Q: What sequence folds into this?
């Protein structure tokens, strides 16, 4: 049943242990895959709820949600398009569980995902402990040169390669879409800043929660699988938007550690070197990406030389895109009002 406000608990009905919040915008087909995977969870049905926040979708998102009524303990809430942070806050306020897990709509859950998050929270019951799960790529996406690079080599999307099972991490690992925390921690000490429509909403909140002792426990068994492919042009756009958010983050918290994390401190000097060559950098990397995909399509394995050139091209292009986003947001915010 779709509603604008959370339904009150019926008399004698216990609140769920975990609330899984899925924020979505115009990804009806992907959302269906996520919800289908949640139908197969090992965690008993009465111990969790799914809260879908429809962030102003114009596709068949509502129809997809209705198709899962009766299959899941599910509620759907609609809001005018306001971005990811606002949608997450909406889901947080609507949720009823002790633990809140934020899930991406382009992932699917393995059968033990919810159970593993609950298990780790029980091992670390204090409010300040959050849980980071592990997101891997689906096999067909992992085979793509670009997706392999951004996850396993350049770590522009995920950065799991250096993590150890059970490791205690700082706020920079409070990653949206694969992290859970105690609901009480957010309600008492801080929620997502709605200025962030995409990117940084998670780490910025983590930074504020770190002042309350936030620690993130890595559970590599809490697995979700990303099923959405991102092409070269799409990833460039993503990093420009990330750069926009990085600059806003650095303005909200102008301290050395945030300036370092956001890579905003030397953005001006980097852009001076990149500006005149930006189009060439993007075009060159895009062409290398096309060649690599064509070779694989014809069954030709990528040799070490080709991979080396490809990875250098990706790295240069993606760093340039992020810096471009930083500089554009800086100019936008610092321009005089007309």
A:
């Amino acid at each position: 049943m779709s509603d604008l406000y959370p339904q009150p608990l019926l008399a004698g009905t216990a609140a769920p242990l975990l609330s899984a919040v899925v924020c979505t915008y115009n990804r009806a087909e992907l959302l269906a895959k996520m919800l289908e995977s949640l139908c197969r969870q090992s965690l008993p049905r009465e111990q969790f709820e799914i809260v879908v926040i429809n962030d102003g979708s114009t596709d068949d998102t509502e129809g997809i949600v209705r198709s899962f009524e009766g299959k899941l303990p599910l509620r759907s809430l609609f809001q005018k398009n306001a971005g990811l942070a606002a949608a997450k806050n909406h889901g947080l306020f609507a949720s009823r569980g002790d633990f809140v897990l934020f899930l991406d709509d382009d992932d699917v859950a393995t059968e033990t995902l919810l159970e593993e998050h609950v298990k780790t929270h029980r091992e670390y019951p204090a409010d300040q402990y959050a849980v980071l799960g592990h997101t891997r790529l689906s096999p067909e996406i992992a085979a793509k040169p670009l997706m392999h690079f951004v996850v396993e080599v350049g770590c522009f999307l995920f950065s799991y390669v250096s993590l150890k099972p059970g490791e205690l991490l700082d706020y920079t690992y409070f990653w949206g879409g694969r992290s859970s925390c105690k609901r009480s921690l957010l309600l008492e000490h801080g929620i997502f800043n709605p200025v962030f429509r995409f990117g940084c909403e998670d780490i910025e909140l983590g930074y504020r929660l770190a002042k309350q002792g936030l620690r993130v426990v890595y559970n590599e068994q809490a697995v979700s699988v990303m099923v959405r492919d991102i092409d070269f042009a799409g990833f460039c756009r993503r990093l420009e938007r990330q750069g926009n958010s990085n600059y806003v983050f650095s303005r909200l918290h102008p301290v050395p550690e945030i300036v370092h994390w956001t890579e905003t401190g030397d953005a001006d000097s980097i852009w001076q070197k990149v500006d005149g060559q930006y189009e060439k950098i993007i075009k060159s990397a895009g062409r290398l990406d096309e060649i690599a995909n064509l070779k694989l399509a014809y069954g030709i394995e990528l040799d070490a030389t080709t991979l080396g050139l490809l990875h250098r091209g990706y790295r240069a292009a993606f760093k340039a895109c992020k810096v471009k986003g930083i500089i554009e947001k800086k100019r936008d915010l610092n321009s005089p009002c007309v």
